[in-house]
Design brief:
Length: 140
């Protein structure tokens, strides 16, 4: 073995002390950077055309946006319906929760939701199911 154990220990301690200061600054600066306040982006409301169509007449349906009902119908009289609503429609699109309930014993059915914002081309999505269907549909 070459060298003194005491000198080796002193060299290691000095190396660790030299690395401690930059390491401490890096870890504490990152915590301070996450405290930057976030300003809420104001979204303008858009005129949104909603259209629903069903293979079998459901008992009821509901369309929710951000947990709040946009359109709900407890008494469905036909296989199709349309509605104009004003709601926030960001450029990234929206996620709508679509809930449909059919009578017991109804075979596999389809429920289509069509969404068009501000005179844009309509985008359609379809749910399939029996009994009660509840799903989130994303529209660009």
């Amino acid at each position: 073995m070459h060298g003194s154990p005491l000198l080796r220990t002193i060299a290691i301690v000095l190396a660790l002390l030299a690395a401690a200061a930059p390491l401490w600054r890096m870890t504490h600066e990152a915590a301070a950077a996450t405290v930057i306040p976030v300003t809420a982006a104001t979204e303008t409301e858009s005129q949104v055309h909603l259209a629903v169509a069903f293979a079998q007449r459901p008992l009821r349906f509901e369309i929710d946006y951000l947990g709040k009902p946009v359109w709900q119908s407890e008494l469905v009289t036909g296989l199709t319906a349309e509605k104009e609503v004003r709601m926030a429609y960001p450029k990234e699109g929206v996620d709508l929760e679509y809930k449909v309930a059919w009578p017991a014993g109804t075979p596999l059915c389809a429920a289509r939701l069509s969404v068009a914002a501000d005179d844009a081309e309509a985008v359609e999505k379809t749910l399939w199911g029996t009994g009660q269907v509840d799903d989130v549909l994303s529209f660009p």
